[in-house]
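Continuing from the previous page...

OK, I double-checked the sequence for MD-2-related lipid-recognition domain-containing protein against my notes and this is the correct one:
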Amino acid sequence: MGMWTINVIIFVCLLNGTLSAEESNSTDTLFQERNETKPYTFKILKYICIGTPYKRSRLNYCKTVLRRNKPTLLNVSVTVPEVLNYIWVEVKVHYKFSTYQPFLIDMEQEACGYIKHRPVIPLTDYIFDTFVKSVPALSAPCPHGNRTYNIVWWLEERLTPRSIPAGEYRLDLKFVAKDNVTIFASETYVMVRRSGIIGSMIDLTMSKYIKGVGIIVLFFICCSGQCARVAEFQPDQTVNDSRPYKIKITKYLCVGAPYKRTTLHYCKTTLRRNKPAIINVSLAVPEVLNYILMSVKSYYKFSTYQPFLIDMEQEGCEYMKNRPLIPLANYVYDILQKTVPAIATPCPQGNRTYTIVWWLDEHFLPKSLPAGDYRLDIAFDAYDKVTLFAMKAFFSVRRSGVIASMLEW
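Thanks. Re-ran it with the corrected sequence; updated structure tokens here:
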């Protein structure tokens, strides 16, 4: 898969609002469950089904349904008469400058092969998990088609991030057959505003600044490495590595030591020629743990480091036991499962010494990242809010080539 293009701004939980018509009665319940503490609101301006008429399918109707004090819905009926064993899915996000420009997500994946073999493709894993929980009829293994799909879809604010800068966005979704003929395609137009006059003014000013310099406000956490007792994690070599930038890890810091409930034996940054710098940590956790609060936060450096987009806190034991629908947590957990399975096992944890090698793996990063300095904070806390372990990773992103790097700066 082509993986991601992350340029700026917003982490839209793209597919979490998708429901089949049979499931549409649960939409009000989902809407009521959303997190109401977010400092912004967004308005869906319109949905458009594009590229019609389709050659290999029939669009029976495509309606935008407005609802008072609830998300605007896209109500679609598509008849697919033939059996399909190959479906190419494209998901792209655009941000509006003077015109809409590609931003954040540029994902392409052949769905039938993916569902059958489940390769390690983090963003696809995240979207597929969302499909499984919200539209299981579409996430079933191939063959597909030979039926009429009645779908109700909306951008669900309940599952969007805690903070999103203001601006106008467009989400493109497309399904393509093997001969490159479109089965269905849609565009969704969204406007985001901060709550309150001052907040909106601040974010509008920030969005103009972002338009000038291209600051990233989303960084997916890429946890790579295995415990020292086992072989080092090796990324899937099939992932596209033709990225127009370089990442340099400046340093790792273990912060808050000495810890009250654990013993940090060592915390080393190891530089490697032509490879990412790694953090090598040995941490003794003497007690048995059935509650571990994990927090992950990302920052971008202006004159100082400022919080940007990711501000995730999740109690790990309960999450692994019940696997609730929490998209960002699902994404992080899937990465942990595939790269550090010893940490991603169900509780109880502790009563052992953890020897971990970890690095920010460029292999899992997007196709494009704007230049700048970043900081990633990770912390694990016990039930009484006592820190078990905490670290900061500092890194910089430079575009390949002198001119490109100067333009980004």
